[in-house]
């Protein structure tokens, strides 16, 4: 029997990634993603629905998400569905569908990375000369 398990989602983080480290040193990041869908009803009324998806990331991907993402960050996620099942202490069966991250793309661009989470050095901004003009090829605005 053939099967295929692939999910591609684009949305915004609902919370900062929660990162834990296992005893073996593996980092695990858990975060939520809000995915919006806009549609029109039969009465031509514009509606919007939001789906909240829990996502787990491992290893260097977890570290990167911790470093560059925070609540509200736009993110493109590629992964696979996983169904977790357990029994509560009072005997109820529970289940939860989530996504295991396999690949992702930061969607906000370089300027969208939160400064407080980035440890990259930023280049000094050019300063105007006394006659209030910028000097050098890098200062041309086009």
Model description:
The protein is mainly β and 142 residues long. The protein has a single domain (7-114), classed as Nucleic acid-binding proteins (OB fold (Dihydrolipoamide Acetyltransferase, E2P)), CATH 2.40.50. The protein is 6% helix and 46% strand. It has 1 helix and 6 strands. The protein is globular and about 55 Å long. The chain starts with 6 loop residues before the first strand and ends in a 36-residue tail after the last strand. One of its GO terms (cellular component) is nucleoid. InterPro entries: NA-bd_OB-fold (IPR012340), Primosome_PriB/ssb (IPR000424), ssDNA-bd (IPR011344). Homotetramer.
List its salient traits:
142 residues, OB fold (Dihydrolipoamide Acetyltransferase, E2P), 5-stranded mixed barrel, 1 helix, 6 strands, Primosome_PriB/ssb, ssDNA-bd, single-stranded DNA binding, DNA repair
Write the layout of secondary structure elements.
Layout: E1 7-13, E2 18-21, E3 27-40, E4 46-58, H1 60-68, E5 74-87, E6 93-106
Parallel strand pairs: 4-6
Antiparallel strand pairs: 1-3, 1-5, 2-3, 3-4, 5-6
Sum this structure up briefly.
With 142 residues, the protein is mainly beta.
Strand order of the largest sheet: 1-3-4-6-5
H/E series, N to C?
EEEEHEE
Helix content: under 10%
Strand segment tally: 6
CATH topology name: OB fold (Dihydrolipoamide Acetyltransferase, E2P)
Question: Into which percentage range does the β-strand content fall?
Answer: over 45%
Rg (C-alpha, Å): 22 Å
What is the tally of helical segments?
1
Question: What is the overall shape?
Answer: globular
The number of domains: 1
Distance between the termini: 57 Å
CATH architecture: Beta Barrel
Task: Classify the secondary structure makeup into a structural class.
Answer: mainly beta
What kind of sheet is the major sheet? Answer: 5 strands, mixed, barrel
What is the assigned CATH homologous superfamily?
A: Nucleic acid-binding proteins
Low-confidence stretches: 118-126
Average pLDDT level: 84
Q: What is the CATH level 1 assignment?
A: Mainly Beta
GO molecular function: single-stranded DNA binding
Motif (Important for interaction with partner proteins): 137-142
Protein name: Single-stranded DNA-binding protein
Biased composition (Basic and acidic residues): 132-142
